[in-house]
Known about the structure:
Oligomer: single chain
Helix content: 55-70%
CATH topology of the largest domain: Rossmann fold
Structural class: alpha/beta
Strand content: 5-15%
Order of helices and strands: HHHHEHEHEHEHEHEHEEHHHHHHHHHHH
CATH class of the largest domain: Alpha Beta
Number of helices: 21
Largest sheet: 8 strands, mixed
Radius of gyration: 26 Å
Shape: flat
CATH superfamily of the largest domain: P-loop containing nucleotide triphosphate hydrolases
Strand order of the largest sheet: 3-2-4-1-5-6-7-8
CATH architecture of the largest domain: 3-Layer(aba) Sandwich
Amino acid sequence: MFDNLQDKLDKAFHVLKGHGQISEVNVAETVKEIRRALVDADVSYRIAKDFTNTVKEKALGQKVLTALKPGQLMTKIVRDEMAQLMGGSVEELDISSSPSVILMAGLQGSGKTTHSGKLANYLKRKKSRRPLLVACDVYRPAAINQLKVVGEQIGVEVYTEEDNKNPVQIAENALKHAKANGFNVVIVDTAGRLAIDQDMMNEIRNIHGAIKPDETLFVVDSMTGQDAVNTAKAFNDILDYEGVILTKLDGDTRGGAALTIRSIVKKPIKFIGTGEKMDALDVFYPDRMADRILGMGDVVSLVERAQEQYDEEEARRVQKKIATNKFDFNDFIGQIKQIKKMGNMKDLMGMIPGMGKMMKNIDIDDDAFKGIEAIIQSMTPEERENPKVINGSRRKRIADGSGTSIQQVNQLLKQFNDMSKMMKMMQGGGGKQMAQMMKGMGGGRPM
């Protein structure tokens, strides 16, 4: 969502990256371009002006004019100020009591029901909690069924009272049910409402008063730009909530809401929705987001995602097979499945410093490995275990069965063979041999 902002900030810093004379005029020009980039990204002019005034003051105070690399120093100042603008530090949920009660509020269509499920999934998988989802949207057709489907997907119980049209009673009864049945987190999904709908706002205030939640989270669609900030403020005036879940950060939008919602509402963004899958919910780290906006990547988040999927026993088994030169296509497809669990490929590539800019105009969808998987699945068990038996006729059969060409099959076999040799050399410490082999590979383009 920050591609355009990243491009414009790059251009702003370009003035300071040359080897020409750096002056106070250059810095002022850069700051002006940064302000323009922020306003174009749907940041309010007042906040953009305050932000750039602070950046300029710090830039001149830290002697950017006499720095050996003024562009880098300026980038760091902007990065640090941007992290502060978005909250400075991460703020986690308060789930210390049992059961902890979380009330979900938001406008119609903000993704509140889906993100109730995502939050339950996060607490179940990463915090080892036993959540209960509560269906308190008694107005929207199929809202209860939607929450049931979400609950079934993630293996979480959903409390419903389909004949009861009083959401306050449903929430109170759900809390009793949770206490009696050992649930330690209760997530209450309420009806989507409009900030101007006084009756609905009174209703959520009544639910809030009845169940006294530990956390009230406002779910807001980042695609709505400054409207998202305005509605967040309207809801906060009534509910005084603890934090925000910002959804649809994978969308094609200008991103101003993510940058300014904290400074206007004075409440932290606690989570961000980054995709459609139920595990596409991340804790919001202002410093990491600032890094990504400025094209610095987010290696820490990438490592954390890898660690979540890391299977120590499986890693030992694969390492042993590599050491004995027995790594096969069954192992390879297992590794692909682990990578896919980490998230969509474009998002992962954007976490590698410098790769976000390179991947900007390249479309990588969730089926990035589809062709490779189809080829491997078209192999016989013998061929997967011993790729050396794959001759010309077998390659044609595999290509026909996978809907690919013989050239693609040949390419995969060659890359698998090269990768296996590299793995073997890394195990044996053959650095020079591996460097020579990589040079000989000539950087062939992968599938």
